[in-house]
């Protein structure tokens, strides 16, 4: 009987890395995840990337290797579209934040960003330019947005253009760093699933301002927005105004992605007015 592509990739990975047992953990639109064992003692993870996501996930996996375990999960090896990496079995940073510990969560994110952004050897090739990543926002038509949100779209798009027109440092970025892409481990909080982007370091924390999932009441709270911005600016040294500008721009970009897929943009529309107000006051 012919094997499916995932069965073939899994079989080859088990042999290549001398693995003794595999347990399926999750399937997403972009990959399959397995927990694997070596000699019945040590756990690790296998991520098998689906062909439809090969380009973006490939950028992310190369960036994850480049981090060398500093602030992120460790990649032990990779071959084609299969990644052999550290197993993280803790909960996400979203859990304590949803339980009311938002300041602690923001401090943890600042610590991770500092680790991810430390100077390293030459960056991986073929990272996605940040401006290219915003193509969906700039291509979005106002009429695709709810009537009451079109002014929000216009303002956020204008802020994004202004940010791109003002030169900044350009560094490798995780590109999707938020609470539920950060897992607990015996080494502390570690980032997973980078997108592999190249651009303004202040953009890195933009997704934080519309997250974690299932916590819109926290993300949209003006007091939480202000405190998050204060903590991140103080600990990372980035301009508060620029960070909040990117937060506005990213919220609109996220909405544009969801609108293109026919999804609701309830969270983005709850956060964006207060993010814009905070930007105006910064």
UniProtKB/TrEMBL annotation:
Signal sequence region: none
Protein keywords: Transferase
One record GO biological process: secondary metabolic process
InterPro entries noted in UniProt: Kinase-like_dom_sf, NH2Glyco/OHUrea_AB-resist_kin
Gene Ontology molecular-function annotations: phosphotransferase activity, alcohol group as acceptor
Superkingdom: Bacteria
Keyword Transferase on entry: yes
Name the UniProt record assigns to this protein: Phosphotransferase
């Amino acid at each position: 009987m012919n094997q499916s592509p995932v069965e073939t990739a899994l079989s080859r990975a088990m042999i290549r890395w001398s693995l003794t047992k595999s347990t399926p953990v999750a399937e997403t639109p972009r990959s399959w995840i397995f927990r694997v064992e070596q000699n019945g003692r040590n756990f690790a993870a296998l991520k098998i990337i689906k062909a439809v996501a090969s380009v973006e996930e490939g950028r992310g996996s190369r960036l994850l290797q480049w981090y060398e375990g500093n602030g992120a999960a460790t990649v032990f090896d990779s071959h084609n579209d299969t990644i052999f990496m550290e197993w993280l079995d803790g909960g996400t940073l979203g859990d304590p934040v949803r339980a009311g510990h938002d300041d602690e969560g923001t401090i943890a994110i600042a610590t991770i960003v500092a680790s991810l952004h430390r100077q390293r050897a030459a960056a991986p090739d073929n990272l996605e330019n940040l401006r290219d990543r915003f193509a969906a926002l700039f291509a979005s038509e106002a009429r695709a947005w709810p009537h009451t949100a079109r002014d929000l779209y216009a303002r956020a798009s204008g802020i994004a253009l202004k940010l791109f027109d003002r030169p900044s440092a350009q560094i490798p970025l995780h590109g999707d760093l938020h609470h539920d892409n950060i897992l607990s481990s015996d080494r502390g909080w570690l980032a997973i699933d980078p997108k592999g982007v190249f651009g303004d370091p202040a953009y890195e924390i933009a997704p934080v301002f519309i997250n974690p999932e299932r916590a819109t009441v926290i993300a949209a709270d003006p007091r939480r927005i202000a405190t998050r911005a204060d903590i991140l600016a103080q600990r990372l040294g980035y301009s508060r105004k620029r960070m909040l500008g990117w937060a506005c721009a990213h919220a609109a970009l996220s909405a544009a992605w969801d609108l293109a897929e026919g999804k609701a943009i309830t969270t983005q529309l709850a956060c964006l007015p207060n993010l814009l107000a905070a930007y105006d006051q910064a």
